[in-house]
Design brief:
The complex is a heterodimer of chains A (457) and B (329).
Chain A (H helix, E strand, L loop, with lengths): L2 E4 L9 E7 L6 E2 L4 E6 L4 E5 L4 E6 L5 E5 L3 E6 L13 H4 L36 E5 H15 L3 E5 L15 H5 L4 E3 L4 H13 L3 E8 L7 H8 L2 H4 L8 E6 L15 H5 L5 E3 L4 H13 L3 E6 L7 E5 L12 E4 L4 E5 L3 H14 L4 E5 L2 E3 L3 H11 L2 E4 L8 H13 L8 E3 L10 H7 L3 H11 L3
Parallel strand pairs in A: 10-11, 10-12, 12-13, 13-15, 14-15, 18-19, 18-21, 21-22
Antiparallel strand pairs in A: 1-8, 2-4, 2-7, 3-6, 4-5, 6-8, 9-16, 14-20, 17-19
Helix pairs in contact in A: 2-8, 4-5, 9-13, 10-11
Chain B lengths: L1 H4 L8 H26 L14 H8 L7 E5 L3 H6 L4 H8 L23 E5 L5 H15 L5 E6 L6 H12 L4 E7 L2 E2 L2 E2 H4 L16 E5 L3 H16 L5 E6 L17 H11 L1 H11 L5 H24 L15
Parallel strand pairs in B: 1-2, 1-3, 3-4, 4-8, 7-8
Antiparallel strand pairs in B: 5-6
Helix pairs in contact in B: 2-3, 2-11, 2-12, 3-9, 5-12, 6-7
The chains are: A alpha/beta (457), B alpha/beta (329).
Bound molecules: thiamine diphosphate and magnesium ion (MG).
The site of magnesium ion (MG) has 6 residues of chain B, from strand 5.
Amino acid sequence: MATEILMPALSPTMEEGTLAKWLVKEGDTVNSGDVMAEIETDKATMEFEAVDEGIIGKILIAEGTEAVKVNTAIAILVEDGEALDATPTTAAAAAAPAAVEAPAPSAAPVAASVPAAPAVDVTPDWPEGTELVQTTVREALRDAMAEEMRSDDGVFLMGEEVAEYQGAYKISQGLLDEFGAKRVIDTPITEHGFTGIAVGAAFGGLKPIVEFMTFNFALQAMDHIINSAAKTLYMSGGQMGAPMVFRGANGAAARVGAQHSQDFAAWFMQIPGLKVAMPYSASDAKGLLKSAIRDPNPVVFLENEILYGRAFDVPKLDDYTVPFGKARIWRTGTDVTIVSFGIGMQYALEAADKLAEDGISAEVIDLRTLRPMDTPAIIKSVMKTNRLVTVEEGWPQGSVGSYISSVVMQEAFDYLDAPVINCTGKDVPMPYAANLEKHALITTEEVIEAVKQVTYR
Amino acid sequence: MAARKSVKKTNVSAEELTEHYRSMLLIRRFEEKAGQLYGMGLIGGFCHLYIGQEAVVVGLESAAEEGDKRLTSYRDHGHMLACGMEAGGVMAELTGREGGLSKGKGGSMHMFSKEKHFYGGHGIVGAQVPIGAGLAFADKYKDNGRVTFTYFGDGASNQGQVYETFNMAALWELPVIFVIENNQYAMGTSQQRSSVTPDIYTRGAAFGIPGEAVDGMSVLAVKDAGERAVAHCRAGKGPYILEVKTYRYRGHSMSDPAKYRTREEVQKMREERDPIEQVRAMLLENKYATEDDLKAIDKEIKEVVNQSADFARTSPEPALEELWTDIYA
Ligand SMILES: Cc1ncc(C[n+]2csc(CCOP(=O)(O)OP(=O)(O)O)c2C)c(N)n1
Ligand SMILES: [Mg+2]
């Protein structure tokens, strides 16, 4: 019985890939476990193994083909004695019920909607005429570290799988090659321990970058981040502190459940002595990370797995930095202010696009850093629009948005024409099921709904 | 094929050996099917397969008694099947459906069964170790004679909380068996690159905890060691460490290209030390089973696994209200 061999999904976020190489040809016999092909995902080149035994009847997708969608038939497997061109029975995947949902919405490719250049209120982050290069957030982060490591030999990177494996999410790709094992250090799985060692190294005059594979694992190291790194400058009466960066993926990934999908922005934002950055675009990822590494204080740098593969314009400058505490206005508007940061910006910008079609003009502010926070930029905007919606992925109680609401209430109460609405993730642990996960996350529709509510439309 | 040639006559009964074969094969076929469903996009997120390590959990489960407890990391499908949790319920959890053991809310890494005394499915490396000792604490408190099998990896064995736990478990003589599943790699990091102690079990000595290294590719060796450990714990002598040397054939999770080891290394292990092949050879050598008998078992297992996959595909997605349940008791 001939069966179709389908393009496999090889990572939680993969939707398509390149069929880089066939290692079998038509007529070859394969056994379970034999490598049939090499497939490139956005993160890696993976070997694709046979599950069933049989003979390769026909190769349907030639090697070198890019953007092959998951579940496309790529070859036909026939049984011994069957004609090589036997027609396959419906492959198993095709029999899957239509109810099976595509990966979580957050994983869906969303064009980084760069709104039309706002006319006012925006100081550009780079001089006019600067050459711009489409760069992924992943590359931007790597470039930032590489540049800072070149210019300061006290800067080093440590974490799990950062060196030989090139990073679990491939952020440190190439760094071991360039800087060697002294400065790009694989640690055992022992977050509390290596974070403490990094804090000590910072006391000792170095500038550590600690990569947490994800911030879920930083919980193991919370004591050193908060009690050791954030407070020493104060406790020593200013004699010594911890100039260092804690960075890694934060927030929901796709389908990894309650312990691996959570946004800690609001937690870290609470701590005096810490600085907190949470970039959305690649240029901010680069410019802020460079600033973070130079900063004489401990900086928590919150990245996002879903954004790693997304490309944005990054200015081609020798030393591009973005200051902390300065929001970026992505889009100017008059009817409502939408404030967000990190991946929340994706929903904010999408909502603003759709709202524009309905004649609602939204001003979209990306905070970029949460501590220090550019509250003056928010106040200024609210004074103009008189309405505010905040957008974040984290939980509602004690959210970043609730802090912003209180500031706006105290400083711009008379300017508000409607109560502030905080759009957040749902108040639940992240479920695994695809349909539930979709509902647990914040959506663009919810942002639009909130804007309509505050604008009484 | 050294292992296959050196097959010895055994005094283990045909029944017992056949049962080991069946249990290990169920795990192997189940995991292969899970890999397939992942490739089809029916399973999402991380999915850590247990292929290659089957003898560890099957050997130890055969040393356990009703009421004993177990818990492990995210690499948990094998443990669940071995302690008798329904294949359909496990597979449907992997596809995130209502019929899953956690109603689709836990996923591959997080399943639990009160009935089978399976306490998870833990996603944070090392976190299950003190929790396992805590279960043993409760058993000792209740004086009920139960033991807890606390499984963790070679990578997890570097977490500080493991040693905090060793100290307390020894201090309070808790009936806990620490099972270190040393499959030689923690993601892309080989054990030599992360640890100065080649034999992890020796670290128990600092706390006066007896331990031993065990051939984790031999289900009978694992069972033997398991019985020693259980006897020690049940006699009220405190914790015991089993470092089971094993090997995972697949990548760490589905998205691991596994470039940190050679194909030959994996192939050699598969060909020479495969736990299922070893038992298969023994069954034939000792004339406990014929090729046809084994074929019949293979077929039976395939049927169970296919049914679990059908169930996992057709079970509906959880109702949306489930988003809001089980947050508080
Ligand atoms: C505290 C923590 N740090 C990092 C991770 C990411 N991570 C998941 S599994 C793993 C490797 C664990 O290896 P090991 O303990 O040997 O178990 P194995 O996967 O080999 O079964 C890592 C680093 C995690 N889940 N938790
Ligand atoms: Mg391991």
